[in-house]
């Protein structure tokens, strides 16, 4: 098992847990933290015994964004040619569904990291925002692209252009979060959702995630064509035979992930 400095990594049954752990900096995403999250995510993704990932922070902060102290003195070439954030794309490409369990601040890169996950569960204390404009920069790992797709152009523009934070209620109303739960129940609720997903057939879960992803990245016609093929392909799986057979026999299916 890889040793980590800035995150805590655990396996509970078929669920992989990644807890950001830089409390002194409100989980600001420095280069070590980025490398570690991506490494842990990929390790879980390569493990066929893991069916879902939960990514969480502390009560005060999911993540307060890129580590401003680490990037403040960088120049254009550092950011463009030596892009310190390029490995994030690998996190966005994980096949295993990821649930962001967000309490406290999810700002800048923290909000963008939550948006790379498939489900965002928010504690009632959660605060989301893209405050980069206040620092003289713009969002750099998807904020200007995923936020408008999640909450619409006009609300996203207000947040990105003013740097205003929004609370959990507003985030849920806008479609950024899947559900709000009381802060004390956040991790239990994330565990329940993750365990449900991890109990399904892994190849079918991958197919569903791929098709949902296609909805974000393609036209309706392309997405529907992709779904048609992916749907038909599930009929090649033992788990389709098992799932439908179990329904006919009025029993719980036992998926073999084949
Ligand atoms: N970077 C570095 N250190 C941070 C960060 C950060 N983003 N956020 C908080 N900290 C540190 C503070 O400096 C402080 O440390 P110290 O005591 O040593 O000075 C400690 O965390 C606690 O923070 P505060 O005392 O400020 O706590 P408050 O409760 O008063 O305020 C806030 C909390 C409102 C969250 C405040 O800390 C804040 O505004 N933080 C910055 C938020 C921000 O602007 N985020 C965007 C960063 S830019 C970005 O994310 C660009 C994305 C591009 C790609 C990113 C890929 C990783």
From TrEMBL:
For this UniProt record, give its keywords in alphabetical order, as a comma-separated list.
Answer: Fatty acid metabolism, Lipid metabolism, Lyase
Q: Does the keyword DNA-binding apply?
A: no
Recorded catalytic reaction(s): these are: a 4-saturated-(3S)-3-hydroxyacyl-CoA = a (3E)-enoyl-CoA + H2O; a (3S)-3-hydroxyacyl-CoA = a (2E)-enoyl-CoA + H2O
Lyase is among the record's keywords: yes
EC number of this enzyme: 4.2.1.17
Give one GO biological process term: fatty acid beta-oxidation
At the top of the EC hierarchy, this enzyme's class is lyase
What's an example of a GO molecular-function annotation for this chain?
enoyl-CoA hydratase activity
What InterPro entries does the database record attribute to this sequence?
Answer: ClpP/crotonase-like_dom_sf, Enoyl-CoA_hyd/isom_CS, Enoyl-CoA_hydra/iso, Enoyl-CoA_hydra_C
Q: Which Pfam families match?
A: ECH_1 (PF00378)
Matching SUPFAM superfamilies: ClpP/crotonase (SSF52096)
* CDD domains assigned to the protein according to its UniProt record, in alphabetical order: crotonase-like
Q: Which family does it belong to?
A: Belongs to the enoyl-CoA hydratase/isomerase family.
Q: Which PANTHER family match?
A: ENOYL-COA HYDRATASE, MITOCHONDRIAL, ENOYL-COA HYDRATASE-RELATED
The protein's role, per its UniProt record:
Could possibly oxidize fatty acids using specific components.
Q: What is this protein called?
A: Probable enoyl-CoA hydratase echA8
Which organism's genome codes for this protein? Agromyces bauzanensis
